[in-house]
Amino acid sequence: MNWQELSDLTNTTRVSARRFEESPYVERYETAEMVRGVYAGRFFPVFNGEDPIQKYWVLRCKAAIYDVPEKPVEISGPDALPFLEKVFARTISTLKEGRGLYTIACTPKGGVFMDGIMFKLATNRYWYVQADGALETWLVAHSGGYDITISDPNSRAIQIQGPASLDVMRQASAGAIDENMRYFQSGFFDLGGQELYVSRTGFTGELGFEIYCQGEATDHGALWDHLMASGDPFGMEFSSTSSLTTRRIEAGILGNMTDMDITMTPFEAGLGAFVDMQKEDFVGRAALVDADRRPLLLGLKCPDATPTMSSIVLDGDNPVGRITAGTHSPTLGCGVGYVRFKQAGDWSRRTLRLRFPDGKEHPCEIVDLPFFDHNKEIARGIDRTIPRPANAAE
Prior knowledge:
Elements: E1 35-39, E2 42-47, H1 52-61, E3 64-68, E4 71-76, H2 80-87, E5 100-106, E6 112-122, E7 125-130, H3 135-141, E8 149-151, E9 157-161, H4 165-172, E10 186-191, E11 194-199, E12 208-212, H5 220-231, E13 237-238, H6 241-250, H7 285-288, E14 297-302, E15 312-315, E16 318-329, E17 334-341, E18 351-355, E19 361-367
Parallel strand pairs: 3-13
Antiparallel strand pairs: 1-2, 3-9, 4-7, 4-8, 5-6, 6-7, 9-12, 10-11, 11-12, 14-17, 14-19, 15-16, 15-18, 16-17, 18-19
């Protein structure tokens, strides 16, 4: 399962652990109350007995450390660049070593197959950090005629997110990581005597970093302990992904196979800015040439209730869309979620009705995404304002 709503914590089942990868960090944080999800073939903590709202404010006001399941896949070899140009919808040739790039892979019919971040580690060596889905199989299926190697570097990501994350990483790197590291910049750094790949990215909309281990070359327990010790002076706490999920919805970050899938084009998902149609060819381009550029996926605010997956959005008595993900926004003080409309239209800023599975209805407002920080000034480190929780002491 992939935690989206509080009700998911009781909708669980037992699965064979042999089918999925265990986290090398799990012994450092597991409790008897932990509930785990499966994503990209990996276990990860979706709940660990904590108060998700308290952890949310730790994330927004200090820093939180997350063990996340997104999986790097390595593509290397003499034909790595032309291959990546073929299978991804953004221009890869301009990506410089030590930089990351958000990019989408489309199906031949133009649907969203995969999204993630591409990193150039060296000439003819790239990592693509994938979301949920069978990426490696898909890459192999398109690799005929290319001199490339597709491999699993056995890397697991840790995210350190929040306004104090820069202080934590400066401490962890003995000053090597500082304000000069730009958004989406990346590189190898010494963290407590170990070489790790670090990027200034994340899945929360907050200023943050991701740390990628180097397979068996990494002492995972020592790395975790070093990061926790580095974060302690700045109030950093471990959190399951429950708080991360709330913040990613506020930030308008979409979940592959949850909010978008192969039945939706990048334009319909509101991600047209990440498709380079000037490229001569890539998988799905022909289908996208005449595709409708208008989005089907928008935001929804509900002052009286928290949207739940599969709740229906009504225009009068007509069902016009459904909720793909919802949460209560502690920052905005209302329910927020994503609504996928059946047809494109002038939905933004309209007041519609939200019908829950139990039949109850509430008014809702359709808005553009994200719900706040439209220019990503928080993630870029431009806006360093520390929010004040509504229940904070005067």
